């Protein structure tokens, strides 16, 4: 079948948008953005220190309550209290260490 006799035009692919050449730009390092992100990251890491403080308060509050309920268990309760205090304080120190690493080592 001939296209001239039927009046149908052949289809051609036309782009819907104008093609632009690809431009390559050099990466500009923004020091203020890097400092701001370090401060935000260190602030987020420091939140764990507040949790450590709350945990230590809970531990010693429970020691006082347990001692008031049963004074004969004073030495056993105190040893458990010191263990819980050390674990809670270690978590707080780990959070503080990560915050300082974000600020000064990265």
- Please tell me the overall pLDDT: 86
Following the backbone from N to C, one meets helices and strands in this order, namely HHH
Query: What is the terminal separation in angstroms?
Result: 72 Å
Class based on secondary structure composition and strand pairing: mainly alpha
Q: Bin the strand percentage.
A: under 5%
Give start-end ranges of low-pLDDT stretches. Answer: none
Shape: elongated
Biggest sheet record? none
Radius of gyration: 34 Å
**What is the number of strand segments?**
0
Helix content: 55-70%
Characterization of this structure:
By secondary structure, this protein is mainly α. Helices cover 70% and strands 0% of the residues. The protein has helices at 3-6, 31-69, 74-104. Helix 2 runs antiparallel to helix 3.
Q: Summary?
A:
This protein is mainly α and 106 residues long. Helix content is 70%, strand content 0%. 2% of the residues are buried.
Give the tags.
mainly alpha; single chain; 106 residues; elongated; 0% strand
What topology emerges from the helices and strands here?
Layout: H1 3-6, H2 31-69, H3 74-104
Helix pairs in contact: 2-3
């Amino acid at each position: 079948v001939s296209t001239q006799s039927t009046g149908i035009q052949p289809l051609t692919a036309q782009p819907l948008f104008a093609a632009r050449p690809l431009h390559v730009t050099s990466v500009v390092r923004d020091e203020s953005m890097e400092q701001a992100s370090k401060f935000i990251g260190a602030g987020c890491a420091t939140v764990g220190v507040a949790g450590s403080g709350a945990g230590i308060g809970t531990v010693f509050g429970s020691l006082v309550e347990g001692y008031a309920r049963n004074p004969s268990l004073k030495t056993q309760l105190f040893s458990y209290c010191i263990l819980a205090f050390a674990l809670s304080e270690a978590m707080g120190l780990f959070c503080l260490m990560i915050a300082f690493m974000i600020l000064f080592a990265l």
